[in-house]
């Protein structure tokens, strides 16, 4: 177990290092020099050198990367004119564009993306498990067909297409809902949910199909097992059989999928956020990438990479926890 | 032959295949179709726009403009979606070809190679599967000079980031194929690793890999559309369905038709390809029959 955890953490660190090296390398291959962009018009060579130093761009790329890694764990100092400003660990540097600490930018945006991902995941699970269960128990024939259709649609529709359709329908045609703007949960929970409901639905249309399919397959499989037949023969009520036996077997694979999907939604939230104009991490990335804002891009990539890697590890551990037959090696 | 028979009995597959086939033809014969309509995808028609209302088209569908014109520029919508099909499908198919090349190459090498090769290649595959691909693709596409041909670039980026699944399947199948008697027989008769890979392993890989490939094609289309939608993929004046949807978002209150045309085409085409993939999978892998009916 300890060995497994160590190997897992080691693997995660390799992935994150690889990710950050790739992003760093990409930016040094980029044709635009961020120092010249920041320095602006009428830039003298002296000033350009100062700007470079302030941005931490005056060293060689490997040295810069090394400084970045040190900053991440130990914090680092940036020259700012005559003074020095200290950026405490975990330091991701300062945005070239707005001069704010990247960690602050990320912390400001993260609640938006997290609200989006968590709400969408809960909605998808509720719809997916409900539909999968009903369709697995063959209660309603028509539901079977709807689930099948949804599964296909889930593969075939990009999230922004669903989003556009929902916006057209609910905000333009019916005018039931306002155009989404983000309201923090702590300010007004009702407005928070009202503004996020369309993005949640858009994501759930795509996500819930996979859960419905898994639940249905699981329920059908467990209902066909011997112990269920035995339980029926003993006269245990059907409702209890479904609750204690069929559902349990069906939900095991969902546990792992949920952890992975939460991270996947965060990582691909950029499309949903752009579509609905939500100021999340994804939108931060799109803006930063167009401005060659290296610290922000590295910060976002590392954060999403970190979430994905952690989610994968958590999924494996959960899987072992809910299914005793699984051995972690 | 019976496999083919069973495919033809599957109505959903047939419907998908027909629509997908039509779309491929549209993409191939785009210049011919636009010539028939007497339009091209890049000519501006400001005279067809209502400048008082910010450039919304004056007319809907007309005899000249089969699907109307784009708001703001007045470019012919029919010509743009037809050429857009070319870009959307072209990018997805070229990316798929590259993905298969890389994925099968790495997968077979990992499966046939020694312990060390296998470990390194498998870790590499895991690495690409663990990356947040969309995020990386955005970063990659945004810093490349604007003068590079975007569609080709998109295909390469999608392929470079998305070969992991194919490699995993190819490796798994190779591991199982290489224990078969006929492969051992070939080895014993002195065939080298390359010859075994080409003669004995590759033919056995065709069915599982192609079944999987049928499913990545629509997902490549979604990726292309998504990246173009975000503005880092195909850029105007080159049309692609994702790019058109991206420009349409600013107009969709004033001119819903502009959203509807590329959106519906994208949806129908994706659905068609998924139905085809689904049908193929059901025939090739009978265990799947229960899952996706």
Automatic annotation (TrEMBL), chain A:
It holds the Pfam family BPD_transp_1_N. It is a multi-pass membrane protein. InterPro entries: BPD_transp_1_N, MetI-like, MetI-like_sf. The chain crosses the membrane at residues 12-30, 114-137, 149-176, 196-214, 250-276, 296-322. Belongs to the binding-protein-dependent transport system permease family. This is ABC transporter permease. Signal peptide: none annotated. The keyword Cell membrane applies. GO terms for cellular component: plasma membrane. It is found in: Cell membrane. PROSITE patterns: ABC_TM1. Its main location: membrane. Residues 110-319 form the ABC transmembrane type-1 domain. Keywords: Cell membrane, Membrane, Transmembrane, Transmembrane helix, Transport. GO terms for biological process: transmembrane transport.
Automatic annotation (TrEMBL), chain B:
GO terms for cellular component: plasma membrane. The chain crosses the membrane at residues 12-37, 87-112, 124-145, 151-170, 201-222, 257-280. InterPro entries: BP-dependent_transpt_permease, MetI-like, MetI-like_sf, OppC_N, TAT_signal. Its main location: membrane. It is found in: Cell membrane. It comes from the Bacteria. PANTHER family: D,D-DIPEPTIDE TRANSPORT SYSTEM PERMEASE PROTEIN DDPC-RELATED, OLIGOPEPTIDE TRANSPORT SYSTEM PERMEASE PROTEIN APPC. Belongs to the binding-protein-dependent transport system permease family. This is Peptide ABC transporter permease. The lineage of its organism: Bacteria, Bacillati, Actinomycetota, Actinomycetes, Micromonosporales.
């Amino acid at each position: 177990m300890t060995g497994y955890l160590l190997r897992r953490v080691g693997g995660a660190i390799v992935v994150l290092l690889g990710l950050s090296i790739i992003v760093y390398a990409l930016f040094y291959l980029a044709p635009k020099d961020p120092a010249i962009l920041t320095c602006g018009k009428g830039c003298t060579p002296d000033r350009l050198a100062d700007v470079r130093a302030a941005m931490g761009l005056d060293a060689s790329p490997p040295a810069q990367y090394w400084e970045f890694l040190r900053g991440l764990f130990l914090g680092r100092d940036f020259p700012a004119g005559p003074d020095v400003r200290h950026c405490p660990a975990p330091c991701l540097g300062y945005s070239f564009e707005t001069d704010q600490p990247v960690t602050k930018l990320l912390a400001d945006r993260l609640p938006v993306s997290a609200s989006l991902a968590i709400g969408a995941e809960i909605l998808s699970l509720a719809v997916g498990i409900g539909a999968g269960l009903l369709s697995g128990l063959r209660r309603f024939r028509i539901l079977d067909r709807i689930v099948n259709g949804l599964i296909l649609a889930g593969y075939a529709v990009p999230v922004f297409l669903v989003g556009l359709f929902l916006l057209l329908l609910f905000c333009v045609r019916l005018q039931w809902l306002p155009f989404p703007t983000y309201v923090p949960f702590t300010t007004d929970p009702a407005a928070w949910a009202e503004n996020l409901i369309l993005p949640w639905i858009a994501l759930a249309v795509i996500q819930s199909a996979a859960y419905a399919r898994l639940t249905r397959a699981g329920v059908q499989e467990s209902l066909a097992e011997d112990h269920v037949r035995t339980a029926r023969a003993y006269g245990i009520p059907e409702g209890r059989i479904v609750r204690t036996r069929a559902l349990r077997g069906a939900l095991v694979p969902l546990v792992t999928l949920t952890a992975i999907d939460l991270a996947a939604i965060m990582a691909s939230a950029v499309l949903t956020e752009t579509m609905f104009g939500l100021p999340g991490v994804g939108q931060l990335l799109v803006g930063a990438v167009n401005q060659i804002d290296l610290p922000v891009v590295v910060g976002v990539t590392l954060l999403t990479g970190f979430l994905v890697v952690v989610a994968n590890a958590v999924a494996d551990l959960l899987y072992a926890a809910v299914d005793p037959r699984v051995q972690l090696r | 032959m019976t496999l083919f028979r069973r495919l033809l009995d599957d109505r959903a597959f047939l419907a998908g295949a027909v629509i997908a086939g039509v779309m491929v033809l549209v993409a191939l014969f785009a210049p011919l179709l636009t010539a028939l309509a007497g339009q091209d995808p890049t000519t501006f028609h400001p005279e067809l726009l209502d400048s008082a209302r910010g450039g919304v088209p004056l007319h809907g569908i007309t005899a000249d403009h089969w699907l109307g014109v784009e708001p703001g520029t007045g470019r012919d919508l029919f010509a743009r979606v037809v050429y857009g099909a070319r870009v959307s499908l072209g990018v997805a198919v070229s990316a798929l070809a590259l993905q298969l090349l890389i994925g099968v190459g790495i997968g077979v090498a990992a499966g046939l190679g020694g312990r060390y090769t296998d470990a390194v290649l498998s870790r590499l595959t895991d690495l690409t599967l663990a990356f947040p691909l969309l995020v990386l693709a955005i970063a990659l596409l945004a810093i490349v000079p604007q003068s590079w041909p975007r569609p080709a670039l998109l295909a390469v980026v999608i392929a470079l980031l998305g070969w992991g699944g194919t490699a995993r399947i190819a490796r798994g199948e190779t591991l199982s194929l290489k224990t078969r008697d006929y492969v051992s027989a070939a080895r014993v008769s002195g065939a080298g690793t390359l010859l075994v890979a080409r003669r004995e392993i590759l033919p056995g890989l065709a069915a599982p890999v192609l079944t999987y490939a049928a499913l990545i094609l629509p997902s490549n289309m979604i990726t292309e559309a998504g990246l173009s939608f975000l503005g880092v993929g195909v850029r105007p004046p080159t049309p692609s369905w994702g790019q058109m949807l991206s420009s349409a978002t600013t107009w969709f209150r004033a001119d819903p038709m502009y959203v509807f045309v590329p959106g519906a085409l994208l949806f129908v085409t994706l659905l068609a390809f998924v139905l085809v993939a689904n049908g193929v999978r059901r025939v090739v892998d009978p265990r799947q029959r229960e899952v996706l009916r």
